[in-house]
Amino acid sequence: MSRVTYRWTPVALLGLCSLSFITGCTTNIATGRSQLDALSREDEIALGEEALPQLTEEYGGAVTDPALNQYVTGVAMSMVRHTEGDYATLPWKITLLNSDVINAFALPGGKVFVSRALAEKFTSEAQLAGVLGHEIGHVTAEHADRSIQNQLPTMILAGIGSVLAGNDAAMQAAVGVMVDASGTFALKFSRDQENEADKLGMRYMVAAGYHPKGMLEVMQVLAAASKGQNPPEWLSTHPAPESRIEIIQKRLDTRYKDIVNDPKYQTFDARFRTEFLERIKTVPAPKKVQKGMIDLERPETWCLHCATRPVHAAARPEIPGAGM
User: Fold this and answer.
1) By the 8 A CB rule, do 24 and 80 touch?
2) What pTM did the predictor assign?
3) Is 28 helix (H, G, I), strand (E, B) or coil?
4) In angstroms, rounded to a whole number, what is the distance separating the alpha carbons of residues 71 and 272?
5) What is the Cα–Cα distance from 288 to 294, expressed in whole angstroms?
6) What is the pLDDT of residues 154-212, one digit of tens each?
7) Are 224 and 205 in contact (CB under 8 A)?
8) In 3D, which of 132, 127, 116 has the Cα closest to residue 216?
9) What residue segments make up the domains of the chain, in order of their start?
10) Does residue 183 contact residue 51 with C-beta atoms inside 8 Å?
11) How far apart are CA 43 and CA 155, in angstroms?
12) How far is 275 from 125, CA to CA, in rounded Å?
């Protein structure tokens, strides 16, 4: 997907305002909350599909090792099958990003991302399940939908039906809410939404046989990483983990107190070590490109004009000192 900065022209606004009516209020089966559904299920899926390629590219691309992808996807799908209603039938896509940026996020319609930099900090499969379960929770709670609705102009909501699947202007506007000008995931969730995603993630973890303490350990890993010189990008869209550790611990002491010592619920440390940590070491590290630096293999780093047109290798600009 080409990078687009959308501007609200009169013609575009007229097109958006001529759309059909809001689908109305429904009860979210995962959260039990009443919510305004301005985006249809088709819209959610279309949004996720549209934004997926750009976000994947901007975060270094996906890890291409089939075994690693199968492993991470398997962990996620073991929880997806326990989601409420028809959420399990979404076209789920789990992407392990070959990125040195510590992050994880989800798009509407079942698109979940986790960076290798974050996954490599874990010591158990339960911790990986914790971060994936949390992002699955964002999808089933439809948090991105709420954020998109809140950030798009109010006048759009006066005429939304199945907007995005059939309206290019609305699609680009909604994608622009999720992805900023640099290609970075940009949706910010409230503390309540993050706690809700934690709660749902723990529910899915336990249903899949994972020890729920994995969610607590994820927050501890992120809290430790946030004290470094380069704080996780995850912190730009999520509240500080310290504010959620206490809530998760309380949930372990109450809701899950009867299973904390139940051997049925495992962390699968050894399996994670052999099937993920040892194998990810064989995957080449992502190439680091500092912002503002020219990358010969990425035309979008040359200039604005170059970023908008395909360029053959022979036409790449020469840089003094390059290749020396």
Assistant:
1) no
2) 0.78
3) coil
4) 9
5) 11
6) 435 434 444 555 567 777 777 777 777 767 786 788 888 999 999 999 999 999 999 99
7) no
8) 127
9) 19-280, 289-324
10) no
11) 18
12) 10
